[in-house]
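Weekly sync notes, structure subgroup
Attendees: PM, AL, DS (notes)

Item 1: joint prediction request from the bench team. They want all two components modeled as one assembly rather than separately. Inputs as received:
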Amino acid sequence: MNRYQLLAADIEASIRAGVLQPGDRLPSVRQACASRQVSPSTVFQAYYLLEARGLIRARERSGYFVAHGGGMAPPEPEALSRPDSASVQVDVTERVFSVLQASLQQGTVPLGSAFPGPQWFALPKLAQALAASARQATAQRTALDDLTPGHSGLRRQIARRYLADGMPLAMDDLVITNGALEALNLCLAAVTRPGGAVVVESPCFYGALQALERLGLQAIEVPTHPRDGVDLQALEAALLQHRPQAVWLMTSFQNPLGSLMPPARKQALVELVTRLQVPLIEDDVYGELYFAPHRPLPAKAFDREGWVLHCSSFSKCLAPGWRIGWTAAGRFTQAVARQKLTTSIATNGPAQAALAQYLEGVGYDKHLRHLRHALAVQRDRMAEAIARHFPPGTRATRPEGGYFLWLELPTGCDAWALYQRALQHGISLAPGPLFSPSPAFAHCLRLNYGIAWDAATEAALAQLGRWCCDMVAGSQDAT
Amino acid sequence: MNRYQLLAADIEASIRAGVLQPGDRLPSVRQACASRQVSPSTVFQAYYLLEARGLIRARERSGYFVAHGGGMAPPEPEALSRPDSASVQVDVTERVFSVLQASLQQGTVPLGSAFPGPQWFALPKLAQALAASARQATAQRTALDDLTPGHSGLRRQIARRYLADGMPLAMDDLVITNGALEALNLCLAAVTRPGGAVVVESPCFYGALQALERLGLQAIEVPTHPRDGVDLQALEAALLQHRPQAVWLMTSFQNPLGSLMPPARKQALVELVTRLQVPLIEDDVYGELYFAPHRPLPAKAFDREGWVLHCSSFSKCLAPGWRIGWTAAGRFTQAVARQKLTTSIATNGPAQAALAQYLEGVGYDKHLRHLRHALAVQRDRMAEAIARHFPPGTRATRPEGGYFLWLELPTGCDAWALYQRALQHGISLAPGPLFSPSPAFAHCLRLNYGIAWDAATEAALAQLGRWCCDMVAGSQDAT
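Output from the run, pasted for the record:
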């Protein structure tokens, strides 16, 4: 063993012995150099080794922390999904509503929720900004200045943030909407006609399916990898075969898989849709919730000819109830703005002004760093709980951002039956069949690790695991 | 002459002599009794007589005021519109956008605007409510409590106001939306399918036409009277002939006519759609802006079986930029709520909470009384200016609420040409052709008397009148 391996082994022993516990911070590189009398590169190498083993995690600008689970996590699902290559009718709305409504009941452990817990949000700071900006609006007495395309200060702040992340965007490319879901729906309406077809991931966000259903559009599901996202060869084949009116994808931290398309694949994706002249609706609502040091660039960053309709919002990162989102819709910007004007005219003005003011400060970045760290820690906690409680053969994604785990349960487990049973015991979850128009993913489920993590959450996960074990045992008895 | 005629003649002489000027308040009944040594009934009879002659106007709880124009007003249009009875394709969106965008230019006299001037709105009070409610939200730290159907406190306040006006409504009947336009669009989407047809007034609100166009629906225009609204016999014939999927009407202070259906006609309307089982979408956004002592009941008040989808908002009365509206959609409430959930999830939470708080006080009613009075005064001013400046043969509606005058210009006048010319000189107006899918109303226009009334507005009206006189003269020269 050389020096860095020795150092790594020492630290691993401390973790295994419980001296260092999950969430504890490791000494800084400088401290470790001083106390161990080694060079910084030795410490870095040791820490990289421990990180590669899943024992510790780096947090941007905060140093290294002991990982939850001490590397204990269920194996990842590896297989591409294999949807039918047909174009199918969508009829999921009833199913989705029954699940969503059940999940809203008071006292339910909200593992099926689509939002992080309210404890993460910067509501006090936002309230201050709202109060301050309300007082200023009084002085100006303007009433209609924030009409579509939206408050110019807010559009400037959003464009500024994209620029800082490496994606230049003009203010005039942006249309402010009533949350990302409105942005997505307006984009979809702008580029489709009833009776057409739209490509989606398999599995995909149920909101996309509801939008297709509402607009009388068929769905074409394409194979999607749990880590890398949509399969580009299959996508190209689908585009050539079905000539769809649009493609709707989440390229970063996809809901429900958490998959992240690498930059080269995003670039290839944009080249493909540009070559075939198919509008790409990119839902990037989780893009800011990355655990790596840098924000993953959206596909929009590679869009030279305006075929990407990029959509996002503050609803997942800052304030769900504010309903402020936006789209940068490329060559379709004017069409989308008109959809907005004819459906809801504009987005709430005071909220736009207050957000613009809030974004001028450094509070949002600070808040995001905190949120990302908290979510990364809880991802590990949940992975550990699943490894501990769920039956062997359970697989779970290991997303590098967002707040969803996607589970593949072993043979004998039925996610819908599990959902029903859990609900009777005050636990919500999102069963796999919500995420496809086809009868697929019956053995899958989506869990939200961004909710409050307390004894009830721990107990709910243990209980879900026991029920799954029961189902596996029952099916083995039957054979 | 008996006593009350003598008293009326004296007051008329004072007005004609300029002793009493437009906007001046008349002595209260009690004061007049004392100073003239007559009975209250004599004073009332005198005032009624003067009011009938258009010389004075009653304002709710404020007494009588000298009318602007001293009774000088253009004659009212009397004829029912005579649209084709066919069902027609709608293609107005480009036309509407070109007019709306032109009207937004800085420095334009906004006679074509769809909103009252910002000077009327209670923005300071609203800002206070927003700041106060933001501070309270901080304490609660809730993020998702105002999801569709909407903030319960706000729904309670809205229901309470309807109850006070004589229309009981349950809180659960209400869905909060992103302004009335979203409510109307959601209602329309909930009860129609592409390819169907919808009955509208002739002329009708262009937003309705844009909604039909967006959803691929045909329009059936029915004859509409400038004072009493839609012709019920013609409506019944259209319903039987075309079997439309919905009827979309403004029953009180219709845009653009300002027509007000009397209560008995509203009741007959509801009985008709109930008998034929056709959903009635009622746009009541101007309902609160009445000049008579009491709020006109909407058609919804007569709805026993839930066929009326009633829509309204605060955008015309309180805060256009807030985008808070609602619908009471009867038997379609759940369908509309689902449309809302799948298109924009919910409406801005802080704004809902702040409005709920604001409505708990008496400020809104005080504000509305002030706004109604101001609008009534400006209606008279504009009528007077039109009588003074426009060519003989010009007719203008005399609405009992809202803030629009509808003008029928004499032969030789073309509203579209007038619009183009006016725009070059920094004056906007809404030309008649915006308000119909057919080539109709080429000699009509809509003017907004709710804008700031200053020298520029006066001058703009005089200029419009001169151009119309020129057009009439030009056409007479040509013949």
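Discussion: The domain at 3-71 of chain B is CATH 1.10.10.10 (Arc Repressor Mutant, subunit A).
Action: AL to compare against the crosslinking data before next sync.
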